[in-house]
Write a structure and sequence with these properties.
Number of strands: 22
InterPro entries: Nucleotide-bd_a/b_plait_sf, PABP-dom, PABP_HYD_C, RBD_domain_sf, RRM_dom, RRM_euk-type
Strand order of the largest sheet: 2-3-1-6
Number of domains: 4
CATH architecture of the largest domain: 2-Layer Sandwich
Shape: flat
CATH superfamily of the largest domain: RRM (RNA recognition motif) domain
Strand content: 15-25%
Radius of gyration: 31 Å
Distance between the termini: 35 Å
Oligomer: single chain
CATH topology of the largest domain: Alpha-Beta Plaits
Largest sheet: 4 strands, antiparallel
Structural class: alpha+beta
Keywords: Cytoplasm, Nucleus, Repeat, RNA-binding
Organism: Monosiga brevicollis
CATH class of the largest domain: Alpha Beta
GO molecular function, one term: poly(A) binding
Family: Belongs to the polyadenylate-binding protein type-1 family.
């Protein structure tokens, strides 16, 4: 859609003369890239930004530490701030793999990121206003550093957005000129952004100094006049309303002139028995919907935390069962091992089983028995059932870190043992020597970075000495790597061997592409054949797509 400057004019916003890139943008050579498709890899991100004619120095797609799946955002570093500004203007909201990207200047100073200076909050936005329309509408006032429309899980606009200007004075002018003006079909509210801490303090102050009271649970034999008289006894009332609901009965609001009167009414009327059957009246400070929902979410989180603590080692994760297994059938499979609190089979949006689920026992001992008896048992589909204790995302990440630390410690010990009598066998061909001469840029145009071959002492190895694999040694050696060349040498040797076995023709280029990813991802490729296979398939696809373009050039 195009709500751009035309929308701004409709809202009473004046057109402003465009400024040059040099004067409009901050001196930052790094861009944040959001709203990325989850299957975008570093090579694709590099090629996308490189196509805008600026010198890209490096790119990074941020990933989950455990699963290595994309988090949907990343960073791109350019040679100069001018290049970053040029690409910010040209690439913002352009599509990458069918999805518009949202670009902001990267601010490395956390105090500036959290200050909220120049940041405005907009609400009651039309659902037709997307990120690009928001940017085009508000850029006419001055340099926009970032802008964002908030969406729910279904992809629908929540009608609220944030826009941050480089100049705080410009932000004040926007608030004055656009607040209570119409953008498309809705009158918007524009105000200064308030940090969460400030909002919480203001909310606490509102809670102390309230004058609005909410009541419900009115006895059936109490008349409207009598219920209102109960509230009139506590002070002067500015307004009042009484409503009725088919399911919840009568409820209403009373606005007092004085805070003390409202507080006294809540204190004395809440839980007061009224009517012939002694129905207790509910009276409390009136709350906005957002406040009520926030309170409900906090209560839900509190109860969930309590449940997790209570049943920490009694919750089991089960996978590989047949897709036609129901929750009742899953319960029957495990009920012989103890008292089951709950059972859940996870399903997709179409209601089809994803062939994994959870069984919660009443005690850790019962869960342990279930694991011992059921883990590895063959299912009707001929697959071994997988049963283990459920661990959340943070706990799994900690477990992976502990395992890697143990691997590093074991390798240090084995290396010490090697020095006592063992050694690395002589090597005739070092694959990294080839890599240092060939492209590490995944077929991309731009500066190439060679990796020096790893220098390894050549010593004889006794036949009975077990030497660690290069892949297993990587975590320990990586911790000692002090610069990029050392890091590339440590990870590149074992990675090249694995890549060459599956993609001998493109091994140097693909290895270079994979080495551009975070250490955690490369270590995962060394240790997990399935993860490596998926990465190789993606990298090969990118190389194939680039081949026609390279031929034309």
């Amino acid at each position: 859609m195009a709500a751009s400057a035309d929308s701004a004019q409709a809202a009473g916003t004046p057109a402003v003369e465009e400024q040059s890139n040099e004067s409009r943008f901050p001196h930052s050579a790094s861009l944040y890239v959001g709203d990325l498709s989850k299957d975008v890899i570093e090579a694709e991100l590099y090629n996308f930004f490189n196509s805008f004619g600026a010198t890209v120095q490096s790119v990074r797609v941020c990933r989950d530490m455990v699963t290595q799946t994309s988090l949907g955002y990343g960073y791109v570093n350019f040679a100069t701030p001018e290049d970053a500004a040029k690409v910010y203007e040209a690439a913002n909201f352009e599509e990458l793999k069918g999805q518009p990207v949202r670009i902001m200047f990267s601010e490395r100073d956390p105090t500036k990121r959290r200050s909220g200076v120049g940041n405005i909050f907009i609400k009651n936005l039309s659902a037709e206003v997307d990120n690009k329309a928001l940017y085009d509408t508000f850029r006419v006032f001055g340099t926009v550093l970032s802008c964002r429309v908030l969406y729910d899980q279904e992809g629908n606009s929540r009608g609220i957005a944030f826009v941050q200007y480089e100049d705080a004075e410009v932000a004040k002018q926007v608030i004055a000129q656009v607040n209570d003006k119409k953008i498309l079909d809705k009158v918007v509210k524009v105000e200064a952004y308030k940090p969460r801490r400030q909002r919480m303090l203001e909310a606490e102050e509102t809670q102390k100094n309230f004058t609005n009271v909410f009541f419900k649970n009115v006895a059936a034999d109490i008349s409207d006049e009598d219920i209102m008289k109960e509230f009139e006894n506590f002070g002067e009332i500015e307004s009042k309303v009484l409503k009725s609901h088919d399911q919840f009965g009568r409820y209403g609001f009373v606005a007092y002139k004085d805070t003390a009167d409202a507080q006294k009414a809540v204190s004395e009327l809440n839980d007061k028995p009224l009517g012939a059957d002694g129905t207790k009246l509910y009276v409390a400070r009136a709350q906005r919907k957002s406040e009520r929902m926030g309170r409900l979410r906090r209560e839900f989180e509190r109860r969930r935390t309590e449940m997790r603590a209570k049943y920490k080692d009694a919750n089991l994760y089960i996978k590989n069962f047949s897709e036609d297994v129901t929750e009742d059938e899953l319960r029957k499979m495990f009920e012989a091992y103890g008292t089951i609190v709950s059972v859940r089979v996870v399903k997709d949006r179409d209601g089809q089983s994803r062939q994994f689920g959870f069984v919660l026992f009443s005690s850790e001992e019962e869960a342990t028995r279930a694991i011992q008896e059921m883990n590895g048992r063959m299912t009707a589909d001929g697959k071994p059932l997988y049963v283990s204790r459920f661990r959340n995302k943070e706990e799994r990440a900690q477990e992976v870190q502990r395992q890697r630390m143990m691997t590093a410690q074991n390798m240090q010990y084995q290396q010490w043992m090697t020095q006592q009598g063992g050694g690395m066998p002589p090597m005739g061909f070092n694959p990294m020597q080839q890599m240092s001469m060939q492209a590490q840029m995944a077929g991309r145009s731009g500066p190439q970075h060679g990796m020096p071959p790893m220098q390894t002492p050549m010593m004889a190895t006794p036949n009975n000495a077990q030497q660690p694999s290069a892949a297993a040694a990587a975590p320990a050696e990586l911790s000692a790597a002090k610069d990029k060349n050392s890091r590339n040498a440590v990870l590149g040797n074992p990675l090249f061997s694995l890549v060459q076995a599956q993609q001998p023709k493109h091994a140097p280029k693909i290895t270079g592409m994979l080495l551009d990813q975070p250490d955690e991802a490369v270590l995962e490729y060394l240790e997990n054949p399935a993860a490596l296979k998926a990465a190789l398939d993606q990298a090969y696809k990118v190389l194939v797509e680039q081949a026609p373009a390279a031929g034309k050039q």
